[in-house]
Structures are given as structure tokens and as C-alpha cells.
Amino acid sequence: AVLDRGIQPAGLAEFQPSPRGVLLTGATGFLGAHLLEELCARTDATIYCLVRSRDCEDAKRKLQANFARYFPLPLDPERVRPIPGDLAEPGLGLSPETFAMLARETDTIFHNGALLHHLAPYAQLRASNVGSTVAMLRLAGTERPKHLHYVSSMVAAEDRDDDGFLTEDFPQQAGTELAGGYAQSKWVSEKLLGQARERGFGVTVFRPGVITGRSDSGAWPNPNDHLVRFITGCLQMRHMPESDILLDTAPVDFAGAAIVRMALCEPAGVPVFNLSNPHLLSWTTLVDWLRDWGY
Question: 168: helix, coil or strand?
Fold first, then answer.
């Protein structure tokens, strides 16, 4: 969790309320599609989407197919431009020419992409989840200053204030209480981003809780989501465990809108935002809801 001293900002970090060029990662994912829709609706920027794919046509197909799951309108090819790459590869899997183009044409980065796996160890997730963060900082420090908005997770937070609430700041504790490689990879990325901010990079971190289906349609087509799989298994067994757990959940459309709108607002000097739901969902209430729906 030590940032290479050679990674330095290209100049003074400037707030971008109206970005002209945006690099978005994770656009073929659940939250990523909603970030893309918000960026299309709230900016006039050209949006470059890094997609793991064989070529530009394959990237375009994946991007449009994922977007169509939630939104009826097609993507504007003049504004939304797929870029084949790979977060786990050195330099994001980009050619030097493409890297140079992004360094020249973008002024804002939304780094939302990550390998989400709750059982994988840190070593298996390091390249895609931490190496990509380092690569984004290198890009942000090339050619022109770029503000980096990083989507982390509440599972990476462990620092608390005197009242027991999770603080909105970069990690200060040793991280020894974090369970699992995914939380550890997000924690390490936040540590690196904190050092980058001290060097003059423009950095903002957003920590969502559990992201659930859309608030209007309930669309939640994410078969590998931990909570979805757990609920599905309970329904298949027709039994659910007794539990006093409280779930910190938010609909995906709310989370996507919150991140983009806050990113485009004048910064209030707070580098980290915990997107925590003040109305926690009890497991008992969830069980009652499922019964009401006939399960």
C-alpha cells in the first residue's frame, strides 16, 4: 500500500463540473451501466468506456447489450466510445497510442471496474483491483490533470469516530480487521489514492453499501451477487435462517445517480463519501416481504 514515488500529478488538480472527456471503467457491469446513463444525461462529454473484449466491435456489442438491460434507448456512438482493454493487464491492456489518446482527450476518470469475488484471496484480485488503480493514477498524471473518482465499497471501511460511525476519510488503521481479498483490495486502493491526493491529485472516493435492483422495475440481473444467491438458495430450500443482521442497501439507480451528481458538484473538501442507507433493512423484514410475495 505504498504508491510509487514516480507517480506525480501533471499539474494542479482542477474541479470539472462540465467534463469534456470521461474515461469510465466497469460500464458493462450493473452499477456501471447506470453510471454511464447518468453521465450521458448530465454531461455533454465524450465517454470512453474501457471494456474487456477482443476488439472494438466486440466491445461495442457488450456495452450496448448490457445497457439495453436497463434502458430502452441505444447509446449514442458519437459520444460513447468503447475502448478494448483489460484492468488486470499492465497499462490496462492498452496500446501506447490508445493510452496517449486517453491522456490527451480526457479530463475526468470514473474508476468503477473491479473483479468482484467474495471468496478469492487478495493475491488473485490484486492485478485487476489494485494494479488498475495504479494505472489510472499514471493516466491521471499524464499530459493534463484529471480528476479521479473511485468507486470503492463500505466493506473496505473500518475507521470509526468516537460515536462508532464509520469516518469519511482515507484509511488510517492497519486494515487487519478486513475479511476477504475483495475488501483488502479496495482498502489498498484507498490507501494509494490517499497518498495520491496528498501529492496533489484530484481524488474522490465513493463507498456504496449493498447495491440492489432498480427502484422502479426491481431489475437485478446479477446472478453472481452474494445476496441474490443467498436469497435464492433460501427460497429453493423453503427455509431462511433466523438472524438479527441489518442490511445496508440502496437501489442501483439511486447509487449511480448519487455518485455522478456528487462528482459534478462543487467539492466540499470531503474526499470520501460513505453512501450508507440511514434506514437499514432487517433480515426479519426481508423474510416478511418474501412471504407477502407468496414464497
Answer: coil
The letter for the amino acid at 150 is: Y
Measured in degrees and rounded to the nearest 5, phi and psi for residue 198 equal -65, -30
The per-residue pLDDT for range 51-99, each reduced to its tens digit, is 999 999 999 999 999 999 999 999 999 999 999 999 999 999 999 999 9
- Residue bearing cell 435462517: 241
Containing 258, the helix (H) or strand (E) segment is: helix 252-263
| Model pLDDT for residues 154-212, shown as the tens digit of each residue | 999 999 999 988 999 999 988 888 989 999 999 999 999 999 999 999 999 999 999 99
Neighbours of 245 (CB within 10 A): 11
Torsion of CA 224, 227, 228, 231, to 10 degrees: 140
Integer Cα distance of 123 and 181 in angstroms: 7
C-alpha cell at 295: 414464497
Strands (E), 161-243: 202-208, 210-212
SS3 assignment, position 230: helix
Q: CA-CA distance, 128 to 109, in Å (whole number)? A: 16
User: What are the phi and psi torsion angles at 82 (to 5°)?
Assistant: -70, 140
- H/E segment holding residue 285: helix 283-292
Tally of helices (H runs) and strands (E runs) in the chain: 9, 11
Phi, psi angles (nearest 5°) of residue 219? -55, 125
Q: How far apart are CA 117 and CA 252, in angstroms?
A: 19
Q: How many CB atoms lie within 10 A of CB 192?
A: 23
Helix, strand, or coil (residue 274): strand
Q: Collapse the DSSP code of 139 into the 3-class scheme (helix H, G, I; strand E, B; otherwise coil) and give the result.
A: helix
Q: Are 84 and 58 in contact (CB under 8 A)?
A: yes
Query: With 0-12 CB in 10 A as exposed, 13-18 as middle and 19+ as buried, what is 97?
Result: exposed
